[in-house]
């Protein structure tokens, strides 16, 4: 982590997570540089147990969907009370993790990281009553085109992506500037010692010491990989869409 005081923010970036499974946190957020950054006060994590806001003695949080169908729905009264206990300011976006949300991108991650923090609502069962999503003007975010059992892992993905961009979290040696998505392309292949591994050699150009050639080779690799794996990104890149992938 950087020791440079200029890199340090004054107020910690704050993540509040509403969940039925607070024991799932900090989870992976405790590990490595992300956990270290929390310990050094760069960011803070708070969990709120949605079940604490149940209005009956059975601590019920769900009921069957209106109109019938499978599964259960998170009750709006319980969810709204839980949300209102946390949303005391307008400085942080209130995000509902859901597969039908807008896909999370590195650009949105950068925006979230540059703000005061975020409030994440983790769904369970079939999801959350629509009236809370509308009434609390929740931003719906998906971490990909697949369905998880709950929003907890999705919230951890989003928070980890943000925290690693906070000033002072990545050291100089781990700069985020050359990573996938930063210039609208996927990353070039990486190699390290030994020079030969299982009959495969490090490409000669990377050992040449010729920085211009290395840069050209990496750019070409990035372009070829992006073209082959992400035609959507490649088209956006060629069109000069701000050199962003979303
Ligand atoms: N019935 C929902 C649907 O068809 O869109 C899926 C509900 S899923 C079983 C339960 C919860 O997991 C969701 O409310 C959401 O919070 C979370 N979840 C599942 N997949 C997710 C994804 N790809 N991105 C973000 N959250 C997800």
- Spell the H/E element sequence: EHEEEHEHEHEHEEHH
Strand content is 15-25%
For the record, the CATH architecture of the largest domain stands as 3-Layer(aba) Sandwich
List bound small molecules: S-adenosylmethionine
In the CATH scheme, the class of the largest domain would be Alpha Beta
Measured on Cα atoms, how large is the radius of gyration? 22 Å
CATH fold field value of the largest domain: Alpha/beta knot
What coarse outline follows from CA principal-axis ratios?
elongated
Total number of distinct structural domains: 2
Strands in their spatial order, largest beta sheet: 2-1-6-5-7
Which structural class fits the helix and strand makeup? alpha/beta
Compact overview of the structure:
With 246 residues, this protein is α/β, with parallel strands linked by helices. It has 7 helices and 9 strands. Helices cover 29% and strands 17% of the residues.
Descriptive report:
The protein is of the alpha/beta class. It has 2 domains: 11-163, Alpha/beta knot, CATH 3.40.1280.10; 178-245, Trp Operon Repressor, Chain A, CATH 1.10.1270. Helices cover 29% and strands 17% of the residues. It has a 5-stranded parallel beta sheet with strand order 2-1-6-5-7, sandwiched between helices. It has a two-stranded antiparallel ribbon with strand order 3-4. A two-stranded antiparallel sheet has the order 8-9. Helix 3 (106-113) links the parallel strand 5 (94-103) and strand 6. Helix 6 packs across helix 7. The protein is elongated, with a radius of gyration of 22 Å. It starts with 12 loop residues before the first strand and ends in an 8-residue tail after the last helix. The chain binds S-adenosylmethionine. S-adenosylmethionine binds at residues 97-100, 122-124, 126-127, 142-144, 146-151, 154. Residues 97-100, 122-124, 126-127, 142-144, 146-151, 154 line the site of S-adenosylmethionine.
């Amino acid at each position: 982590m950087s020791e440079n005081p200029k890199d340090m923010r004054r107020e910690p970036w704050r993540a509040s997570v509403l969940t039925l499974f607070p024991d799932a946190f900090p989870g992976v957020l405790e590990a490595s540089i992300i956990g270290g950054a929390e310990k050094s006060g760069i960011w803070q994590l708070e969990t709120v147990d949605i079940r604490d806001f149940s209005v009956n003695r059975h601590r019920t949080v769900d009921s069957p969907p209106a109109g019938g169908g499978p599964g259960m729905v998170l009750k709006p009264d319980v969810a709204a009370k839980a949300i209102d206990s946390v949303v005391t300011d307008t400085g942080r976006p209130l995000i509902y993790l859901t597969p039908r949300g807008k896909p999370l991108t590195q650009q949105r991650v950068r925006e979230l990281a540059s703000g005061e923090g975020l409030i994440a609502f983790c769904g369970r069962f079939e999801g959350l009553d629509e009236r809370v999503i509308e009434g609390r003007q929740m931003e719906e975010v998906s971490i990909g085109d697949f369905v998880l059992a709950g929003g907890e892992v999705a919230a951890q993905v989003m928070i980890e992506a943000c925290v690693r961009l906070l000033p002072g979290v990545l050291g100089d040696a781990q700069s985020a500037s050359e990573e996938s998505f930063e210039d609208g392309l996927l990353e070039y292949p990486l190699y390290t010692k030994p020079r030969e591994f299982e009959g495969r050699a490090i490409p000669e150009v990377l050992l040449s010491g010729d920085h211009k050639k290395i840069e050209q080779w990496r750019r070409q690799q990035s372009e070829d990989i992006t073209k082959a794996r992400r035609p959507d990104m490649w088209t956006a890149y060629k069109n000069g869409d701000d050199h962003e992938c979303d």
